């Protein structure tokens, strides 16, 4: 069954859907098994796609393996030119890609278009970085030899992307790999595969040679993941998702000592000190907590507010949260769309119930909205203590849990008291405090007086059990290159 354009409003170029039927030309094998993609706002069927497994994944890997030497042999400028063309096609189709993304994932249309622009920015960045892969020369210990270092593409890369940012994660992962000279086999999340398919159709138009970019649709990731990790033709795995699955993939890659890049779970603290600009902190907290309905890996999960500004912050924050409109992402007045599925609804409800049972107070929200779709009221809890589940686990939903604190040193200790270390935020004006807290927080990324920090020019990634490696920036390119030392004698 093809995609159903009538269920995706505002499309300007329905021919994008026809392009998806040509995915076998991108290396995707034909498969008779199928699975369905649903709109989380309405529950309506959007598409029925081939449900691929080990056989199809292996065929895609073989295509990527055959194509890799030729892709790597192109000049950096030639690879850059194709990435530039893909970037421009993404820009030209921003409206349609945003509409597809909103239909399958639910986020507000303006937010979806912003994500498409962010994806295009990664393609632009690495189209430029493709020309900046530098080696080095080393002073030799004797006059009859020369020593130098070159960098070469690692080879075939297996990538697995999440449902919460189904466009930007595709671009952020594969654009540096392609710039480096690697070929790709990508499995998008089963909940949100359509925008990835549309982007790959545009990649085909951009002129990538056959076998360079390969898409694998699958309703379950286990079989595909095992093949990507176990197949010796795949030299690297790049994954964004839960820490639990990241551990599994590391184990599956360990027998081959396969290189991995992992961007995993978080439990981000958001700290507001007494000397902070409270209004700015409220703005930042709204952005860090409720963007994408709280379904981001860097979403503020624990909001620590110092006692001197606690009540003021809570009052202003709750007032703002009450104004957030929830509904279908195609409604221009909507700020928060649906959660991805029923499991997400059940998780946020369990976190609220646990907190209330242990003394937490619901200041606003706390309930599902309607019986159609997966909508939930944006919720604020106060009276939160460390033994509550919401203070220990990532909620991944529109739930803000506020913790009152007194001691500035103690709050940094509590913020670090987690296995995760992806992102942290804090608001303060004292420069001495800013430096000390920024350096003391055990996180790969720290937002200071801002609730949003992702950029293609900056390294994205975590420490501890939040991941390995970095995406974005010039550092993101290094993860797809191998360093080779050449020693030339008899000179």
From TrEMBL:
InterPro entries attached here?
Ald_DH/histidinol_DH, Ald_DH_C, Ald_DH_CS_GLU, Ald_DH_N, Aldehyde_DH_dom, Aldehyde_DH_Superfamily, Succ_semiAld_DH
- The stretch of residues making up the signal peptide is none
Spell out the catalytic residues. Answer: 263
Task: Name one molecular function that GO assigns to this entry.
Answer: oxidoreductase activity
Q: Where is the Aldehyde dehydrogenase domain?
A: 33-485
Does Oxidoreductase show up as a keyword for this record?
A: yes
What Pfam families does this protein's entry cite?
A: Aldedh
Keywords of this entry: Oxidoreductase
Group of enzyme by EC = oxidoreductase
Question: In terms of domain of life, where is this protein from?
Answer: Bacteria
EC nos: 1.2.1.-
Regarding protein family, the annotation reads:
Belongs to the aldehyde dehydrogenase family.
Instruction: Report the protein name in the record.
Output: NAD-dependent succinate-semialdehyde dehydrogenase
What organism is listed for this UniProt entry?
Mesorhizobium calcicola
């Amino acid at each position: 069954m093809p995609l159903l354009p009538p269920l995706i409003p505002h499309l300007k170029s329905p021919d994008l859907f026809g392009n998806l039927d040509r995915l076998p030309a991108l290396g995707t094998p034909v498969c008779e098994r199928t699975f369905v993609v649903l709109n989380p706002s309405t529950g309506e069927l959007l598409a029925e796609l081939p449900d691929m497994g080990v056989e199809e994944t292996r065929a895609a890997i073989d295509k990527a393996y055959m194509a890799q030497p030729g892709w790597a042999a192109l000049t950096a400028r030639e690879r850059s030119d194709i990435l530039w063309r893909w970037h421009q096609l993404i820009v030209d189709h921003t409206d349609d890609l945003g509409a597809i993304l909103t239909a399958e994932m639910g986020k507000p249309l303006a937010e979806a278009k912003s994500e498409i622009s962010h994806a295009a920015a990664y393609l632009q960045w690495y189209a430029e970085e493709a020309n900046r892969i530098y080696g080095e020369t080393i002073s030799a210990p004797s006059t009859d030899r020369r020593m130098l270092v070159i960098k070469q593409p690692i080879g075939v890369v297996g990538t697995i992307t999440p449902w919460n940012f189904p466009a930007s994660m595709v671009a952020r992962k594969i654009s540096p790999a392609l710039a480096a000279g690697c070929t790709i086999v990508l499995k998008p999340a089963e909940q949100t595969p359509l925008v990835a398919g549309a982007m790959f159709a545009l990649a085909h138009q951009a002129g990538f040679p056959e076998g360079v970019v390969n898409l694998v649709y699958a309703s379950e990731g286990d079989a595909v993941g095992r093949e990507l990790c176990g197949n010796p033709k795949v030299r690297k795995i790049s994954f964004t998702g839960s820490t639990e699955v990241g551990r599994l993939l590391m184990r599956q890659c360990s027998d081959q000592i396969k290189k991995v890049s992992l961007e995993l779970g978080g439990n981000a603290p958001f700290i507001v000190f007494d000397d902070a600009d409270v209004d700015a902190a409220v703005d930042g907290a709204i952005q860090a907590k409720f963007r994408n309905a709280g379904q981001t890996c860097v979403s503020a999960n624990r909001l620590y507010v110092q006692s001197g500004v606690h009540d003021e912050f809570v009052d202003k924050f709750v007032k703002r949260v009450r104004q957030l409109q929830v509904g279908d992402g195609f409604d221009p007045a909507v700020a928060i769309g649906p959660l991805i599925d029923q499991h997400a609804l059940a998780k946020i409800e369990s976190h609220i119930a646990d907190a209330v049972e242990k003394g937490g107070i619901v200041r606003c929200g706390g309930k599902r909205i309607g019986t159609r779709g997966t909508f939930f009221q944006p919720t604020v809890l106060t009276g939160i203590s460390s033994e509550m589940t919401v203070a220990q686990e990532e909620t991944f939903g529109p739930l803000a849990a506020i913790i009152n604190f007194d001691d500035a040193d103690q709050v940094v200790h509590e913020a670090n008291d987690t296995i995760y270390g992806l992102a942290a935020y804090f608001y303060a004006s004292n420069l001495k405090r800013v430096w000390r807290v920024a350096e003391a927080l055990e996180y790969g990324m720290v937002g200071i007086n801002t609730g949003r920090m992702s950029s293609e020019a900056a390294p994205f990634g975590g420490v501890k059990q939040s991941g390995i490696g970095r995406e974005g920036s010039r550092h993101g390119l290094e993860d797809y290159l191998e360093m080779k030392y050449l020693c030339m004698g008899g000179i």
